[in-house]
Specification:
Helix content is about 60%, strand content about 0%. The protein has about 220 residues and is mainly alpha-helical. The radius of gyration is 17 Å and the shape is globular.
Length: about 220
């Protein structure tokens, strides 16, 4: 992918996300949270791509993956008012749907489209698939890392805010309780991933995020 094509995808993104700004103040905070997250993931992706020694055209592909990985979040929130996939729809699947409906990748070589779409589609899986159609799993690994690295930033920022100023959907509707769920503590003690379906509070959600670094 050439830089000019990545620039065009950025222009599409900058035109697309404001179409979701016609919403109440609470909703706008949630939409803007994902816009900022996307921009930060792109910054992290540039760092990772440089560290991996990617060629310029590969770096542009990685940048497109980062930019597009969460575009499904915007229609998801508009329709369901949540970022919790289990209460709505898989946001990665929705992202691929947006990419195709909007023709974001039209004109790109088929192999580049496949790389981008598969990285977007699989970025949120607990475990990436053993086999993929695209020639490399590199972009899947890169976006999974870039995404999680910025998610830590997102929640450090959110937890530092008073409750009334937080983006309400950031913690997926979990209550702010003092206790921890035993199954979440047990998973963390075993250096296993804490599963979202076991989380009953924001404290459990914090354990889930810690578990990313221990597995």
């Amino acid at each position: 992918m050439e830089q000019s094509r990545l620039d065009a995808i950025w222009q599409w993104f900058d035109d697309y996300v404001p179409t979701f700004y016609d919403i109440d103040p609470e909703g706008l905070r949630n939409i803007q949270l994902k816009v900022e997250h996307t921009r930060k993931v792109c910054e992290v992706m540039d760092i990772l791509a440089a560290g991996e020694g990617l060629l310029p055209e590969e770096t542009c592909i990685a940048g497109a993956v980062a930019l597009l990985h969460d575009v499904g979040r915007f229609p998801q929130y508009r329709r369901w008012r949540t970022f919790r996939d289990s209460d709505s729809d898989n946001h990665a699947r929705l992202a691929v749907e947006v990419i195709r409906e909007q023709g974001v990748l039209d004109g790109l070589p088929p192999d580049e489209c496949l790389l981008i779409e598969e990285a977007v589609r699989f970025h949120n899986l607990l475990h990436p698939p053993e086999q993929v159609q695209s020639p490399t799993k590199l972009f899947i690994r890169l976006i999974r890392d870039a995404d999680k690295l910025d998610i830590w930033r997102v929640f450090l920022d959110e937890y530092a805010l008073p409750a009334e100023k937080r983006a309400s959907a950031a913690c997926l509707g979990l209550p702010d309780l003092a206790e921890f769920t035993p199954s979440c503590l047990a998973a963390l003690a075993k250096k296993q991933i804490v599963h979202l379906e076991d989380c009953r509070s924001i404290n459990d959600f914090k354990l889930l995020q810690i578990s990313w670094a221990l597995t």
